[in-house]
Write a structure and sequence with these properties.
The protein is of the alpha/beta class. It folds into 2 domains: 138 residues, ATPase, nucleotide binding domain (Nucleotidyltransferase, domain 5, 2-Layer Sandwich), CATH 3.30.420; 167 residues, ATPase, nucleotide binding domain (Nucleotidyltransferase, domain 5). 42% of the residues lie in helices and 20% in strands. The chain is built from 10 helices and 10 strands. It is globular and about 65 Å long. This is tRNA N6-adenosine threonylcarbamoyltransferase.
Length: 338
């Protein structure tokens, strides 16, 4: 089975090729064109600008992916594309490109839920013991997902306001550290004191599996008004204190969910899964419970078409798409399969 996958949900234009031979699954190309440098001057992603650059980049990225994989259109069984959630103007570019190629190459198209693809990145070359709990953390999402099988899952918790990644970016902006803020805050935190500033752990004892990070961001703002950060070490300490507060909440909720639902496996997904502190501390907490722990390779944490291809492969094992029967995972709050 050979799959061409396309991802344009935000500001990365990506195309990937997945190949399966005799049960061996491999992502043989995963090309990503990032727009980070373009959006830096605005302090965040501007949807209209992102869409225009997707239009410019989509064809060269797809062609490079095909060349890297040494494949031609005739080699593919179908095309997979992100259909949501994401920036609508960005998604349209990828979906229309996939539809156009589907018509030109006479190939079916499978629409993929972006968040399912993030967690599916853990399936590649890993034996998952179900049930599993997935912590999905990114710039726009913070969710806990109960997974009964590769295609059976249910959202059990989510952020009620800011996502974890969004909070990182906003705190970076408060500290005038630049964009994207998450990696910068994490890097500065490595040289900081996590106990220097007392910050809240929102909803840690709420009794459910929802999250809230807006209040934590506001707490940082109030601290900055109370205390004039005098030097670089003060900034490092604030970053470390903030990061530890986020990590503590994420870990406590995830472990609580694993216990309640009798999970055998816990894994991470999403852009914030690249955060080294969160990866290390969550893994330690999971191992204390004698559970399996997985986290994707760094290249599959941020938005990329490789994870779209992996998700499509596992869905195709259940139902191979045909020209008159596109299979789609709805981009709705409950992540229900059609």
């Amino acid at each position: 089975m050979n799959i061409l996958a396309i991802e344009t949900s935000c500001d990365e234009t990506s195309a990937a090729v997945l190949s399966e031979n005799n049960g061996v699954v491999e992502v043989v190309s995963n090309i990503v064109s990032s727009q980070i440098d373009i959006h830096k001057e605005y302090g965040g992603v501007v949807p209209e600008i992102a869409a225009r650059h997707h239009v410019k980049n989509i064809t060269p990225v797809i062609m490079e992916s095909l060349e890297t994989a040494n494949m031609k259109p005739v080699d593919f069984d179908f095309i997979a594309v992100t259909s949501g959630p994401g920036l609508i103007t960005s998604l349209i570019v990828g979906v229309e490109a996939a539809k156009s190629l589907g018509v030109a190459w006479n190939k079916p198209v499978m629409e993929i839920n972006h968040m399912y693809a993030h967690l599916a990145a853990n399936f590649l070359n890993n034996k998952i013991n179900f049930p599993a709990i997935a912590l999905v953390v990114s710039g726009g999402h913070t969710e806990l997902i109960l997974i009964e099988d590769y295609n059976q899952f249910k959202k059990i918790g989510q952020t009620v306001d800011d996502a974890a990644g969004e909070a990182f970016d906003k705190v970076a902006k408060l500290l005038d550290l630049g964009y994207p803020g998450g990696p910068i805050v994490s890097k500065r935190a490595m040289a900081g004191d996590v106990k220097r500033f007392a910050l809240p752990r929102p909803m840690q004892g709420s009794g459910d599996f929802n999250f809230s990070f807006s209040g934590l961001k506001t707490a940082v703002l109030y601290k900055l008004k109370e205390i004039d950060l005098q030097n670089e070490q003060d900034v490092n300490d604030m970053c470390a204190s903030f990061e530890q507060a986020v990590v503590d909440v994420l870990i406590k909720k995830t472990i609580a969910a694993a216990k309640k639902f009798g999970a055998k496996t816990v894994f991470m997904a999403g852009g914030v899964a690249a955060n080294k502190k969160l990866r290390q501390e969550l893994e330690a907490a999971v191992k204390e419970q004698s559970l399996d722990f997985f986290v994707p390779e760094f290249q599959y944490c941020t938005d990329n078409a490789g994870m779209i291809a992996i998700a499509a492969y596992y869905l195709a094992k259940e139902k191979m798409p045909t020209m008159d029967n596109w299979q789609k995972i709805k981009a709705d709050p409950n992540w229900e399969l059609e």
